[in-house]
């Protein structure tokens, strides 16, 4: 925050209303990539022969957030871009705001700019407009103008050489200065700088410098080369709030590595896939990739969407396939509504694994949150669940429980790894592709419930 994004966006709307939540007080676990769809503007369209492309402003996370790793920030933005690309949205350009009232070009500012370059790639720099903000903090134009000069010469020069444009965002004039345009008009001029470049490119049929290129580059760097076909992939799945992230943190012995929701929060915390790579150890000969996934039964995505996200993540991360892998499915034992929910998501899984040899052995069902109900009740419910999950168990799925002994998660994952290593290299990736296909079939959910009923033994 602080460079004036909200002010800029509100100015574009020009209706005096506040379109941006200022000072986002949202918990750090929300996705911080917030797109703003700007109103279309006809005033500047005289320069352009066609309808101006709709402009989407992306309020990207954490360029100032020192607690996140660079890699994490890049991954989140890339994730957002990738989803929007699927929706056929075209990124026309990028407006980068810099607070000119900042006394120093700080390490953070440098880091921001580096990140930014890394994210969008050199070829896209011509679609970047570097905009200085907060000139109003100065008495007259001398000091900020000198700073702008310095920025251009020393810090932005690389980008300017690659055709990035520079602009000032001004709210009102300073002493002794007459301003041609300010506020709303000024903001739209800046937007049209982006649009002009975009339209030129379309017309001149210049090589595509669309977001796909950028993302592929980014993914190529930060994802694809990271993984190996020999990695063991363990997906930690379950309904929202089942304790997936806590489980992974326990296993890694890294509290806070995956974001965990506040105890009182009703909102699902993990909305995107995150993972950690664990090097081979005495417990497993191959590397392990442990993956935190969005929860089922969550208010924002259907279970099918969640499966699809997981499956496409696997395909993209392991373009050459992934041999060994499995799923840990966590179930909150303190929930009494088990009978009426939590079935379909497991159902999708089960329907697809029916065809794959040894597939049941790639699933471990684990109960969590025993302390919420006490050991005695826990044992009773576990026994009940075991009879409900008997079918899976007979086919080779393992049933386990996480009784809040901090070493449970480690034990469960280590045992699973060893079992998976013993399985040989049948293709886990293909299996997930089947899940994805299944999830695209319209209306497949009704059949799933029935199937699940057969598998698990029908219940009320
Ligand atoms: N008592 C108890 N609480 C737990 C356990 N595991 C997780 N919790 C709590 O349950 C809440 C949700 O845990 P998370 O690990 O964030 O669960 P999640 O499945 O990752 O949830 P979302 O990503 O938010 O959908 C947090 O408040 C945890 O502290 C457990 O084994 N026992
Ligand atoms: Mg989580």
Automatic annotation (TrEMBL):
Q: Which InterPro entries does the record associate with it?
A: G_SEPTIN_dom, P-loop_NTPase
Which parts of the sequence belong to the Septin-type G domain? 231-318
Pfam assignment, any one: Septin
Q: Which controlled-vocabulary keywords does the entry list?
A: GTP-binding, Nucleotide-binding
Gene Ontology MF, one: GTP binding
To which protein family does this belong? Answer: Belongs to the TRAFAC class TrmE-Era-EngA-EngB-Septin-like GTPase superfamily. Septin GTPase family.
Q: What is this protein called?
A: Septin-type G domain-containing protein
* Lineage of the organism: Eukaryota, Fungi, Dikarya, Basidiomycota, Agaricomycotina
